[in-house]
Write a structure and sequence with these properties.
CATH class of the largest domain: Alpha Beta
Number of helices: 12
CATH topology of the largest domain: Aminopeptidase
Shape: globular
Strand order of the largest sheet: 1-2-3-4-5-14-6
Largest sheet: 7 strands, mixed
Number of strands: 14
CATH superfamily of the largest domain: Gcn5-related N-acetyltransferase (GNAT)
Structural class: alpha+beta
Mean pLDDT: 94
CATH architecture of the largest domain: 3-Layer(aba) Sandwich
Radius of gyration: 21 Å
Strand content: 25-35%
Order of helices and strands: EHHEEEHEHEEHHEHHEEEHEHHEEH
Number of domains: 2
Distance between the termini: 46 Å
Length: 357
């Protein structure tokens, strides 16, 4: 009924991803190329029916235990109809064939939203002790209709924000903050801001080269993903322009994602982070996105988030204080799930996680 395909070219793969109901920019070929330049091997696996690719996964591999074995990882995938048992089983057969050939010790998948947990368990997956992508996030509805059937326009989005966020957006306009689409040369400015943000909020970032390649692969090169780098700045009395904040934002189908953001330690009263974020939301609306994903908040229940956000600054707590004011809804994926091929190495991996924590 289904034919396994272990060699899929970029054009065919990207066309499949872009048309899939569960499309994610983590599954397009550009993301695979990016990760391949930073320590991962990439493989695409699919199943074909009537000469058409109907389900598939972009798999990332990384060495484990002195390169004796490998971790296989599928971010925001596989792309499959989870309600179609035969399709799911056929695709998992293809994935296991590929990962076993690569001597993977275990397979980690982060399949996203609305995946039946009982299906994952029936397939032999176990809940993972480690996630790669933050499972909990805030989604802002930016297009479509309200529950009352009215169109979601800018006024609706603004009305859903808290008063402080709306006020800070206005402040950015009042303080002469302007937002532009950044050029390739502006990535250096973004990296400078990111270094400040990392030091201020105590979180890790990629090397400057990483963000340069993000620009090259998603903004300069051809990709089904629409992307832009937005930079917020102001011009001083001497006519010098000062960059104060920047964001990379991506859109695919009806979804958009705010993935990387940075801001300066200077002129913070100008609220440039709010101005550039509002510009990113408006840009995503123009691309036809219905949701704007703030990508990553602490993975605790909403009542705990609200009770503790003013006192916590570790991990994602600092960014949650910013993200919570934009009027979105808190949602959670099903998290990460592991399929074990080599129990010995998998148990060593779990022991390492316990030791590290």
């Amino acid at each position: 009924m289904y034919t396994i395909c272990l060699e899929i070219n970029d054009e065919e793969w990207d066309a499949f991803v872009a048309s899939h109901l569960r499309a994610s920019f983590f599954q397009v070929s550009a993301w695979g190329k990016l990760k391949a330049e930073f320590g991962w091997d990439v493989q695409r696996v699919g199943i074909v029916k009537h000469d058409q690719l109907v389900a598939g996964a972009q798999i990332l591999y990384r060495p484990l235990v002195a390169k004796f074995s490998q971790l296989a990882y599928i971010p925001l995938g596989p792309l499959v109809d989870w309600q179609d048992t035969l399709q799911v089983q056929a695709l998992m057969k293809a994935i296991h064939l590929a990962t076993r050939q690569r001597k993977a010790a275990f397979l980690k998948i982060e399949p996203g939203y609305d995946v039946p947990i009982q299906t994952l368990q029936a397939l032999g997956f176990r809940l993972s002790p480690q996630t790669v992508q933050p499972p909990r996030t805030i989604l802002i509805d930016i297009n479509g209709q309200t529950d009352d059937g009215d169109s979601i326009d800018e006024s609706v989005i603004l009305a859903r924000m808290n008063q402080g966020t709306r006020r800070n957006i206005r402040k950015s306009e009042k303080h002469d903050v302007t937002v532009r689409h950044g050029s390739r040369q502006d990535v250096a400015n973004f990296n400078h801001l990111l270094a400040m943000t990392s030091e201020r909020q105590d979180f890790g970032v990629h090397t400057p080269r990483y963000y340069e390649r993000v620009y090259d692969l998603f903004i300069t090169a051809q990709s089904p993903v629409k992307a832009t780098l937005l930079m917020a700045s102001y011009t001083d009395a001497q006519g010098l322009e000062h960059d104060l904040a920047g964001v990379f934002v991506f859109a695919l189908g009806t979804q958009s994602w705010y993935v990387y953001g940075a801001s300066s330690n200077e002129e913070r009263q100008r609220m440039a982070s709010f101005g550039v974020q509002w510009a990113a939301i408006l840009w995503a609306r123009e691309q036809g996105a219905h949701t704007y994903d703030m990508v990553g908040i602490p993975d605790v229940e909403p009542h705990i988030l609200e009770a503790e956000f003013e006192n916590r600054h570790d991990g994602l707590w600092g960014v949650y204080r910013f993200k919570r004011g934009w009027g979105g809804r808190i949602v959670r994926t099903v998290g990460a799930w592991d399929y074990v091929y080599n129990p010995l190495i998998y148990n060593l991996y779990r022991a390492y996680l316990r030791w590290r924590s």
